[in-house]
Amino acid sequence: MLDLGFSASAAFAVFTVGAALAVFFQRSLMRAVVAITLSFLGSAVVFYMIGQGFIALLQLFVFVGGLSTYLMVAVSSEHREFGNRYALVALAVVFAAGLSVMLMGVGDGQPANQGSYWYFAAALGQYWPFIFVISLALFGAAMASVLVIRRFVRLVV
Amino acid sequence: MYIIGACVALVGIALAAIAVERNLIVIMLAVELIFLASTIAVVGFMSYLQGSAIGAMALLSIWAVASIEIITLVAFYVYMKSRGYSFDVSLLSRLRW
Predict the structure, then answer these.
(1) Does residue B45 belong to the interface with chain A, where contact is any CB pair within 8 Å?
(2) CA–CA separation, A59 vs A86, rounded Å?
(3) ipTM summary value
(4) What does A109-154 look like in DSSP terms, one character per residue?
(5) Helix H or strand E segment including B35
(6) B13 touches chain A (CB under 8 A)
(7) Which residues share a beta bridge with B23?
(8) Considering chain B, what is the average pLDDT of its residues?
(9) Can you give the CATH number for the domain in which B82 is found?
(10) pTM, whole model, 2 decimals?
(11) A58 to each of A11, A26, A116, B44, B84, how far by Cα in Å?
(12) How far apart are CA A10 and CA A42, in angstroms?
C-alpha cells in the first residue's frame, strides 16, 4: 500500500505538470500567467512534502508572491475585465492559509527542514562572493527593467 | 522517481511549446517552466542527499536567472506593447530597431 505522504506529493507533482500544460491552452495571456502561478504553487507544495520546507517558503515568497504578481500586474494592464473579486478573495485566503502552514512547519524541528535551513546558511557563508555577484545581476536587471518601464509605461496605462 | 518524471514532463512540455508557439511571451513562459523543472530536480537532489551546499548554490543561481528572465520579460512586454510591435515571433525578423 502506498504511503499517504508519497501519494499526496506525487499528486501535487502531477498538478504542477497539469498547470504547466494549461499555460499553453489558454487564449488569454492573463489566464496563462495564472496557470504558471499555479504551477509554481504546486512545486512549492511538492518541496514542502518532500521535507524541504525552507525552500518551499522561498519558492512561495519569490515566485508566487513576487514574480507572478509582477507578471500579473504587467499583463493585467490590458485585461481590466478579468477577475471575479470573490474568486480572488478565496484565492488570497488559500494562499495565506498555505503560507501559515508552511511557516509553522519550518520551525517544527524536523531534521530535513533543519538540514535544509542550515545547509542554506552554510552555503551563504561559504560562497558569499558568488551570492554578491548574483545580487548585483538581479539588481542590475531590476533597475534596467524599471528604467524601460518608466520610459514607456505612460503609453500603456 | 516521480520528481524526475515531473521534471522530464515539464521540460518536454516547454520544449514542445517553444517549437510550436508563436507568441513571444508564451515562449518566455515556456523557458520559465524549464527553470522550474531544473529547480525541482535540484531540490529533489538536495532532498536525496539530505541537503547540499552545492545544491543550495545551484538553486540560488537558477532562481536568480529565472527572476531576471521574468523581470526582462515584463520590460520587453511593456516596451513592445507601447511601440505596437507584434508578439508573433515569425514576424520578428529584425535584430535591431
Answers:
(1) no
(2) 26
(3) 0.84
(4) --HHHHHHHHHHHHHHHHTHHHHHHHHHHHHHHHHHHHHHHHHHHH
(5) helix B24-48
(6) yes
(7) B88
(8) 83
(9) 1.10.287.3510
(10) 0.76
(11) 21, 28, 12, 15, 36
(12) 10
Angle, CA of A7, B2 and B19, to the nearest 5°: 130
Q: Which domain holds residue B64?
A: 2-95
Backbone angles phi, psi at B23, to 5 degrees: -85, 125
Helix, strand, coil proportions of chain B in percent (round to 5)? 75, 0, 20
Residues 6+ apart with CB under 8 A from B50: A111, A112, A115
Q: How many domains does chain B have?
A: 1
Residue A32 scores a pLDDT above 70 = yes
Classify residue B39 by burial, with Cβ atoms within 10 Å: 0-12, 13-18, 19+.
buried
A to B CB pairs, distance under 8 Å: 148
Tell me the nearest-neighbour CA distance from A95 into chain B, angstroms.
19
The three grid cell numbers given for residue B41, joined into one nine-digit string: 530536480
Is B46–A116 a contact, with Cβ atoms under 8 angstroms apart? yes
Contact assessment for residue A53 and residue A105, using Cβ atoms and an 8 Å cutoff? yes
| CA of B50 vs chain A CAs: smallest distance (Å) | 7
Q: What is the pLDDT of residues A41-93, one digit of tens each?
A: 889 888 888 888 788 888 888 888 788 877 777 777 665 555 566 666 676 67
All residues at 6 or more sequence positions from A147 whose CB lies less than 8 Å from its CB, including other chains: none
Contact B70 A55 (CB under 8 A): no
